[in-house]
Amino acid sequence: ELKVEQNPLFLSMQEGKNYTIYCNYSTTSDRLYWYRQDPGKSLESLFVLLSNGAVKQEGRLMASLDTKARLSTLHITAAVHDLSATYFCAVAYGNQFYFGTGTSLTVIP
Amino acid sequence: DAGVIQSPRHEVTEMGQEVTLRCKPISGHNSLFWYRQTMMRGLELLIYFNNNVPIDDSGMPEDRFSAKMPNASFSTLKIQPSEPRDSAVYFCASTTLAGPYNEQFFGPGTRLTVL
User: Which residues of A touch B113 (CB under 8 A)?
Assistant: First the structure.
């Protein structure tokens, strides 16, 4: 079974700082997804990464994929309070998604 | 597009009662997934359908859980009898297998509390 590990599980960061969330997975896959979940809400798709070296950016978030290392990163630049949420990576294997444990991000003033 | 629709949004029931959760996928999507989310176990895939056919139900906890997809626009997840440990948020997600992205779009979820 494909295993997906995210770290850190919890992240508290000050506004204006930069940080990176890591997503490692155990089996070759060519599709990786990042989702955001606000407390009490559903999962919202952020990025779809389809190939080695893929990089996507939206606002203060940038995601990248290294399929050889089986690693994806979600980089946060100059964090703001609105980014506080739980972030999940998901790796596709066949038609199924395997989700990481999530990273709970809190941005403090 | 209305997105994935789930009902009810909240359900409170007593142990032993039957619970039915409903999902309407995005029109044109041909794959549907049922997930359960708890603090302890995170997000778990229960079952998924391709073209209305159940493909993998290995995540269904036990025989008390059953899921159906009678047509392309409707699916149900039934728990009978319900137990307190079934309390969780149940999400339905859908996707199309036709394009390169295959990202899953999630519904708002049903928060189930079994007393």
Answer: none
